[in-house]
Amino acid sequence: MNFDLVIIGGGMVGTSLACALQDSGLKIALVESHLPSAPSSFPETVQDADMRVSALNRASEGFLKTIGAWSRINEVRLSPYDKMRIWDGIGTGHIQFDALELGESYLGHIVENRVTASALMAQLQQASNIQLFAPDTVKEIENIEDASNRYLVHLENGQMLMTPLIVAADGARSFVRSWAEFSMREWDYQHHGLVCTVQTQLPHEACAWQRFTENGVLAFLPLPNRHLCSIVWSCPEAFAESLLAMEEAQFNHELGKAFEGKLGAVINTGPRAAIPLRQRHAKSYVKEGIVLVGDAAHTIHPLAGQGVNLGLMDAYVLADEIKQGVSRGLPPHDEQLLARFERRRMPENLKMMAAMESFKRLFAVQSPVLRWARNWGMTKLNKLGFIKQHIAQQAMGIERNIR
Q: Which of 151, 359, 360, 362 is the most core-located residue (most Cβ within 10 A)?
């Protein structure tokens, strides 16, 4: 079977890219190993919510609206937050962001990953030009150098897909990236991200909370039920393993203590998991008809929740360049077209990665003098409204024009 492009990986980034090309006139294949499970009913308990969530900013919201997925997400559930509280657990430094100060009604939305994934998959199935191969995986990729459709993708089910363009949206351990031998810069943070859903004694107040502790960064993210939060605790591997091994009562106590009881006692905890944290960045995103997007191209520390937003913007920009190229009579695998995608995205991704790395290192310092300077700087920044507003607008993606 011949396709104009084959997207390998049907997570949020790969599926959103396919949806963004639903009106392009191109014949597209999407290969995904696991179909998303349907969201459960409104989360009344910690067992009902997905333990993996994303903080979707305004730019991501705008993109998802243009491809028809946001209304589907809204029909199920999402949790807007209008405040963010960040403080140093080893001192008095703090920063707070409020939507009202920015003249906005909210800062962003916390959405369970399976809610977003299910909405995107439902939207994709309405597109007549997209063929979904799922659940299925890539067995082998063959490079046929003398053919116009130079790549032959062999699937585990025996089917073969011919295409001049492969988009790798298959995650941090990308099979496609490895097969195509993209050069990478990467290092291990020696931290794991522990995730779970918790029930708190006090309501979360539609606020995203983040505390920098001696053992890493702890975030409480608000869910639609005002007493449920999704937590992400970035901490050393050994400490994460000890947290996973604890009985629920002991874990709840340790978590509440680390969070300084901001929302009262932690009453219940759902299933826990720990994900190794590693920074990766491909030295190039494009190579001979193969394009990397999302986690296949870059992964960053989760302390600001920007990873999925970067991936969705990759999908938006790549779709934008492909559609512009098609309107000028160019094939989607045109080298100059793909080079423009890389030029638009790489600086943005590197800028965000550098900022997150700087924050991570800043809060890892142990020197008392540097700790004092850090706390002084946070408190000072909190009083500088114009700088705070600029930082907030960058994180919210307000300045990006989604068309």
A: 151
